[in-house]
């Protein structure tokens, strides 16, 4: 059976989903943390490389080094494996962004820290970005909406909080709408992340920046910060 820990609820695909629903069977919890991580990493890689529709349970099992029968002992369906992968990605994102939103410091220093953190995260975890890009471009509306709800809410809250905190200072432009500017920041950050993880966006970055500059991570950060500073400073 699927483990469920009730904490509020919402509807998803015609059924009520608890906020902290766990999509694996109780047998998965009995595995060591290392084995759980291996299966989850395999799932993220397979979904990222093949998309949800073309990914198969056997492909995930093979990548994890287990038989497909064992995978079905841990998850009932491919959808449950995918939703568990989404939760894993959300936790990764929370661990990166939430401490930054809660921290002290000048606004632009916070933004640059977020930018550098996401850049490093993209280089270390390319499949997390690839699975996001694959699923949001595949046309699977229900699963895409689930990703948006689970993952985008984390970044949206982080960026809004950073801007709201900055607006408490009189010197900061008060006319800025924190939700709109958070949305704009996220679009910039997302394109940067894709440009480190997805082949199409890697090539796109080379076309715009040139071969040499596209591989210069410090140049990317410096120029993006120049753009962001201009956007906020001329918005008063």
How would you describe the overall organization of this protein?
The chain is mainly alpha-helical and 236 residues long. The protein has 12 helices and 2 strands, in the order ββαααααααααααα. It has helices at 26-29, 33-54, 57-64, 68-74, 78-102, 107-124, 126-137, 141-167, 178-197, 199-209, 211-214, 217-233; strands at 9-12, 15-18. It has a two-stranded antiparallel ribbon. α5 (78-102) runs parallel beside α8 (141-167). It is globular, with a radius of gyration of 20 Å. 26% of the residues are buried. Residues 1-19 have low confidence and may be disordered.
Radius of gyration: 20 Å
In spatial order, strands of the major sheet run 1-2
Structural class: mainly alpha
- Proportion of residues in β-strands: under 5%
The biggest beta sheet is recorded as: 2 strands, antiparallel
Global geometry: globular
Separation of the first and last Cα atoms: 55 Å
Q: What tags apply to this protein structure?
A:
mainly alpha, two-stranded antiparallel sheet, 12 helices, 3% strand, globular
């Amino acid at each position: 059976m699927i483990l469920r820990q009730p904490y509020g609820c919402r509807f998803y695909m015609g059924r009520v989903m608890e906020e902290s629903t766990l999509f694996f069977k109780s047998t998965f919890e009995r595995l060591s943390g290392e084995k759980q991580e291996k299966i989850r990493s395999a799932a993220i890689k397979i979904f990222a490389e093949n998309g949800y529709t073309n990914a198969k349970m056997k492909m995930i099992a093979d990548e994890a080094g287990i038989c497909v029968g064992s995978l079905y002992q841990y998850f009932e369906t491919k959808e449950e494996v995918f939703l568990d992968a989404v939760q894993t990605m959300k936790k990764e994102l929370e661990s990166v962004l939430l401490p930054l939103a809660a921290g002290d410091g000048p606004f632009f220093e916070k933004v640059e820290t977020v930018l550098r953190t996401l850049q490093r995260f993209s280089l270390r975890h390319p499949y997390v970005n690839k699975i996001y890009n694959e699923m949001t471009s595949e046309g699977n509306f229900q699963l895409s909406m689930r990703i948006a709800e689970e993952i985008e809410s984390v970044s949206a809250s982080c960026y809004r909080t950073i801007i709201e905190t900055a607006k408490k200072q009189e010197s900061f432009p008060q006319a800025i709408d924190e939700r709109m500017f958070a949305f704009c920041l996220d679009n910039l950050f997302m394109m940067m992340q894709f440009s480190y993880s997805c082949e199409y966006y890697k090539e796109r970055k080379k076309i715009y920046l040139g071969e040499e500059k596209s591989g210069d991570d410090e140049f990317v950060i410096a120029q993006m910060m120049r753009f962001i500073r201009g956007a906020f400073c001329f918005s008063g």
